[in-house]
Amino acid sequence: MTQAPSLPLTGLKIVELGHYIAAPFATRLLADLGAEVIKVEPPGGDPVRGWGSSVDGNAVWFSVHGRNKLSVTLDLKKPEDRARLVALLKRADALIENFRAGYLERIGLGPDVLHAENPRLVIGRISGYGQDGPYRDKPAFGAIGEAMGGLRHLTANPGQTEYPPPRCGVSISDDLAGMYCAMAVIAACWQVKGDPTAKGRVVDVDLVSSVFSLMEGMLPEYGLFGWVRQPQGAAIKTAAPTNTYPCADGKWLCVAGNSDLIFKRLMAAIGQPAMAADPRFATNAGRCENVAELDAAIADWTRTQPAAEAEAILEAAEVPCSRLFDMADCANDPHFRDRGWVMEVADPLLGQVLHPAAPFRFDGVSPQAMVRWPGVGAGAHNDKVFAALERGETTPLSA
What we know:
alpha/beta, 17 helices
């Protein structure tokens, strides 16, 4: 496949020094938007290539994780390979890396060195705790970002002490840090592109504050009132009824019936018109005060219905609801397919594989067209990239 000319970041050149999740997730977003991304891997490849299922030794996840990227291999312990990296960065607009804080400085490639070679280079740095502060040298993975950023405290069920609060099921802090880094790097590139005299910026993103940024009003509430929000389980403390209810087939149904009009429709649909007329439930504040009674009534009804049938009844009443989708539900849902959220992609390493679409759409570009090629083997583009480098070519490259 070739570079799609109508994507907004066509022409932007990014070098990724990423491993595992955060930086590669950031560059995947930028590559989906049309940027040239050259992923620099160690000779054995990004360690994430060994994660999860595989086909003939090729990691299934990497088909998505590495899509739209050019892969080259360099051993940064070797001076000649560090020199090649510097040459790549001299033609680049930005570098995104997620080594432990200070690693680039330790190998002689800190921002001062790189800016001496390319003064307009934007450098996006993702680490566990940031590039300074008392914790900067501590190791961290995504789970630590969830724990310290405040999220894991909230994922338990109220009063539950037998089991630890669960993670959300994906590496959410890595993904958040990647998204924030991508956004900040593009903002810095916009500033540099718009000013011929501008110098490159250093963007410092960390896992902990990326999670911490999602804590809504909890910090000012603590500062003003000393309140510490406690786990709420599947409910929302400030809106009712909004919860997840058990169904007859062992599945779950999420229901959001918290506006006054929707609440009345919900009660009519489950055969509880008297509750809709009860003045205790006339406002959201009253419903929140009496939420246990409401949740019990809704759960009594959902327990009599398979999840899909309960969902259909409430949808007919225009009550926001959804079964808890697993991946089979997502992959086969007609809306996912019609919108192109689930795509069939021909992968030379894996065969026909399903990809999630990029989470943004542009007029005139189909979601399928944004996947120019799937993730490739480590170093698959060594010859192409290094030959172009030796010729002094600066135009963006494609697979």
